[in-house]
Every structure is written in C-alpha cells, then in structure tokens.
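User: Predict the structure for this protein chain, please.
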Amino acid sequence: EHGRLLEAKNIFTQVREAIPDVPGVWLNLGHVCALQFQYENALKMYNMCLKKFHHGNDVTVQLLLARTFFDSGRFLDGKNTLQKAIRIAPRNLLLWYNLGLSQEQFGIKTLQSEKRTVEEVKIAVAELEQALGVFSFLSKKR
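Assistant: Here is the predicted structure, written as structure tokens:
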C-alpha cells in the first residue's frame, strides 16, 4: 500500500539492522525506496543484495536494478545491467524484451532532447536499430 510506505520502510530498516543476513529485507527496502521515487537508495539496496547474497549473479535482482534504472531515466545503465543478466540467462525472453525497451526509450528520449549533439543522435539511432533487432528476434520466438 502506498499510504504506509514510511512505516514499511522503518520496519524493514529495523529488521535489516537486527537480521542483516536476510536478502528479502534488502529487496523490500529497495522496493519501498523505488515506490517513494528514491531511486538511488533503491539501487543501493538492490546492489547490496546482489553482491552480498548472490555474488552478482541473480537475474531477478538484476531485473529489479534494470527496472529502477529505467524508472529513473538511466536507460543505458539499465541496458548494461540487462546485458549482464542475459549473459547469465540468455534464453530468458523477459530480459531481452526489457533490453529492447531500454534501448528504445534511450533513443526516443535522446532524439526528443533539444540539446543533443550529432554524436548523441548517432548513438540514439544505433540504439533504436538495436532495439528493433531485439523486437524482431522476440517476434520470431512466439
């Protein structure tokens, strides 16, 4: 519930301090921070969980990281995170779909920007072309 996020955050913080070796607490703190638009704090919680409990190799946590990067407008960071996850689980089509979305949104946002360089336009077009390739790949997997 959005109305009790502060209370949830306080409870999860207390639990984390009492029992720091429970990954779910870190994830839930990340969720609460993301819902409060505190993206940097959410990223810290997800990264800590990923490193502390999963040795950097959990696709679910990487997907949460990518979603938080996406929500905060950091599309290339999300793309990089998804590419790492795809190396772990190359058959996971959800990862591929989110990769395409991140590339597409980066391209769109860059091209909509009034202050963009020729180089930025070239990169945006390349990302859009790669996104098209991802979506084409996915359409053949149906």
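The radius of gyration is 17 Å.
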